[in-house]
Each structure stands twice: as C-alpha cells, then as structure tokens.
Design goal:
It is globular, with a radius of gyration of 18 Å. It has helices at 15-19, 32-44, 57-66, 102-114, 137-142, 155-161, 184-191, 206-221, and strands spanning 3-5, 10-12, 24-26, 49-53, 71-73, 78-82, 91-96, 118-122, 145-150, 168-172, 198-200. It has 222 residues and is α/β, with parallel strands linked by helices. It folds into two domains: 3-82, no CATH class; 91-221, Rossmann fold, CATH 3.40.50.1970.
C-alpha cells in the first residue's frame, strides 16, 4: 500500500489502484508550496490525473510552475493535469438552480470528467422559473445519473428527484440570503425530500458529488 512521505503530507499513491480514482488535493488550509509538492508527487507516481480543489490564485500558480501542462478554472477554484485520459463511459447530467451555483457546478463537472464520464451541464433552471426546465427534459431521459446543485431552499433537487428515472445526487450550496444559513436550509430540505431516488452530499461538496456520479455512471454503462 504505497504512499509518498513528504513530511507535511503522506500522499496516497495507491488510491487509483484501489478505487479507480486518484487522490484529489484540497487546497484549503495548505500552503502553495505544499499543494504543488503533493501534486507533483501524484503526477510522478503515475496518476492518470491530478486535481487540486479550493485553490486560490497563488496555489494555482504554484501548481502550474511544477506541472506546466496543468489547466486552471478560476471560477471553480481548481487546477488539474490529465496525463492518461480514462475511456469515457456513462452520462452524467449536472443541473443547477442558479448561475451563482456555478463554482460548485464546475468543480463537480471537472471531477466527473477526469474520472471518465461524458458530462452535460444545464445551468440556471431553478424553481423560481420552473418552465425553464422543459429544455432539460431530453437530457434527463438520457442520463445515467443526475447531479442537482442548488442553494437557497434547495427545492430543485426534489423536483428533479420526482422526474428522473436514474439516481439523483443533491448538492446543497452556501448560496442564499438570511435564513438560507450558508447552505444549511438547502441541506435540510434535500435530506427531508419526499423524492425517494435522491441522495445528498455535504454543503458545497462538488468534488464528492462528481466522484459518486462518475462511479454510478461508469457502472451503469458497463
């Protein structure tokens, strides 16, 4: 069960062999130098992809200095390199309630794509204008799994959960005013949903949603 000991981190270089998904790096709480060192260790160990999430400008610069072929997404606060693309299997549909949910939408998308799925994104179709959902229905019927990203009241997850013929993953976001309570209201609403095909990850957990969605979609397509 190998790992690389960098003194400040023990980098799990065996995870992709165990689980089919390389370790992702959470930038939050680390220094840019630490993030870059971990990313380089994973790349040197042969990871198919290396993804850093919640990475600020300085962290993203540090990673691109040691991995010049890395790609950045400023809004998602992500930087990644893909060395050995996985064969695409399965279809993941990501739907967001509002444009403000975009950072989490794209964190989810990037992770699901790196784990070898075809991803379709439909943004800003929340319940305040539910007629906009009509344009999404054809994609809903083709998806192997749907990820619903929503803040405020989180109601879109229940709506999709009542329509989709496949598993639905709700991602509550910290978007919203006052009683939205930084995503807690959306989280509790999704957890209390009467749509019985809906599972829920933590607040703003685009990485987790992307990982679970990719596993479901790839298994469904086998």
């Amino acid at each position: 069960m190998p790992f690389s000991d960098l003194s400040y981190a023990r980098v799990d270089t065996h995870r992709e062999l165990r689980q089919g998904a390389s370790e992702a790096i959470l930038g939050q709480g680390k220094t840019p130098e630490q993030v870059a060192g971990i990313a380089l260790a994973l790349a040197d160990a042969g990871a198919s992809s290396v993804l850093v999430t919640r990475a600020d400008d300085e962290m993203r610069r540090a990673v691109t200095e040691v991995l010049p072929d890395a790609i950045e997404h400023e809004r998602a606060r992500a930087v990644w390199v893909e060395r050995t693309p996985l064969e695409k299997r399965g279809n993941v549909l990501i739907i967001s309630a509002g444009t403000s949910d975009g950072p989490i939408v794209h964190e989810t998308r990037i992770r699901a794509e790196l784990l070898g799925t075809e991803v379709t994104v439909q943004e800003d179709v929340g319940v305040a204008g539910l007629h906009r959902l009509a344009a999404v229905l054809p994609d809903l019927r083709k998806a192997d799994v749907v990820v619903v990203v929503a803040g405020m009241d989180g109601a879109l997850a229940s709506v999709i959960g009542g329509l989709a013929p496949c598993p639905v993953i709700g991602v509550p976001t910290s978007v919203g005013y006052g009683s939205a309570r930084h995503g807690e209201t959306a989280l509790y609403a999704m957890l209390s949903s009467c749509a019985d095909g809906l599972a829920v990850v933590g607040i703003d957990d685009g990485l987790g949603a992307g990982s679970v969605a990719a596993r479901i979609a790839r298994r469904a397509a086998r």
